[in-house]
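User:
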Amino acid sequence: MVKKLFIPVFALALFSCNQRKEAEANTSLSYFDVKGYFGKEISRLQRLNPDVDKTVSINGIAEHKKAKITDWTKELAIFVNADINKTSWKGSFKTKEQDGVDIYTSDNKKIPIKKISITWKGQKAGKIEIIIDNKNILYQSQDTLIYCPDSLYEIKKQQKIKLLKEKKYSVIGKLK
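Assistant: Predicted structure:
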């Protein structure tokens, strides 16, 4: 009896594995591949190991230093996390191309990424700008992320928590 059940169960398990691979293979990206792009940039920057003039500012008080970034994955994580190709977000972004700039926008309240614009220089991205807006009853923040390959990355954040004073943060890294 056990032998008779073993063969159909084994066949069913094998069949379900093949279905999953086909499902994964058939998924294609609906929008610009932010996660993939920054994954390649992180690898490239890790390899190049450029000097960075970095300025960090909190509520207008700035600190400037020259640095070697040892972990580009951590440094650019906020950019990687701005991936708009999540399965549940499919169809939630409007796409527009205007004067060499691809613009992706969403007005869905459940999606924090509101706008991504990619300015092209030929076949390469010359500038990527991302607007992220988070709101709930207690908290609201707006992030503006700018990335220009081989020159700079900028992260600006405005944060307001109920009953607390608004905070403004910025990180500007100029690549040398």
